[in-house]
Amino acid sequence: MNPERHVRVVLVDDFTAWRLLVRTMLEANTGCVVVGEASDGREALELLERVECDVVIMDHVMPVMTGLEAAVALRDRRPELRIVVLSGTPSSELRDAFREAGAVAHFDKSELQAAIRFVCSGAA
After folding, report:
1. Domain with 36 in it: what CATH number?
2. Residues 12, 62: contact at Cβ < 8 Å?
C-alpha cells in the first residue's frame, strides 16, 4: 500500500458504541480513515451510493437487512469493494456464505485487533 494513501473504511454495525470503538482503533492507525458509518445493511447500501471507500467492515446480525444480505447486494453493485466481516456469531457456515458473497475476510469480534491490522495494512 502507498504510505501516502489511507485505506478508506465504512463501518456497518447496529451498535453505536461498537462502531465508536472500531473507529477509534482504525483512526489510531495512520493507515486508515473512516469515511462513513451505517447501522444496518440497507443504510449501508444507501451510504455507499454517496461515499467512496476501499473497505466495508460489517457485522452480520443487524435489523432491517443482515450483513450477509448487504454483502450480496454490494457484490452486485460495487464488486470492487472489499468486505471484511467482524461478527459476534462466527461459524464455518457463515464464513463460507460470506466468502461466496465476496467478503475477503471474516473475524470474530474478539479478534478486533487482528482485523484492524488486516484492514489498515492494505491486506483487505
Report:
1. 3.40.50.2300
2. yes
